[in-house]
Amino acid sequence: MHCFYHPEKPAVGLCRFCQRGLCIECAAVVEDVLSCKARHEDQVRGQERLASRSLLQAARFAAVYWRNAIFYGLAGTVFIAFGLWQLKWLGLQAFVFIMLGGFLLYAAIANYLEGRRYR
Ligand SMILES: [Zn+2]
Ligand SMILES: [Zn+2]
Q: Parallel, antiparallel, or unpaired: how do β-strands 33-36 and 21-22 relate?
């Protein structure tokens, strides 16, 4: 591959914005990636900032899902434990708690799986 601006020179990398080959002279390092020097530096800077911002947002989403998963998981465990404990005295009514606990555990797993997608 050769530099887009200097066809006789070998390229050292691609501009993150226009994907053109760049030689050592034309390459500018912006936010840890390459861009056309004095041509696409601003565009690449904007692109990379946007990308890192959405990464940050994904991490925040994941944190919310993890928190929900932990909350539902704990609540579900408590409900199931309570239901099992009350089974002797309440009989069938205790199954309502166990079912609720099961539903909460299901919600916990769903949140956990959803949170993993943002990793
Ligand atoms: Zn470029
Ligand atoms: Zn060049």
A: unpaired
CA of 10 to the centre of ligand 1 (A): 16
- How many angstroms separate the alpha carbon of residue 43 from the centre of ligand 1? 8
Ligand approaching nearest to the C-alpha of 47: 1
Q: 54-85 pLDDT, tens per residue? A: 888 888 888 999 999 999 999 999 999 999 99
Q: How far is the CA of 48 from the centre of ligand 2 (A)?
A: 22
Q: Where are the beta strands (DSSP E) in the chain?
A: 13-14, 21-22, 27-30, 33-36
pTM metric for this prediction = 0.58
List the chain domain ranges. Answer: 1-39, 54-116
DSSP 40-64: THHHHHHHHHHHHHHHHHHHHHHHH
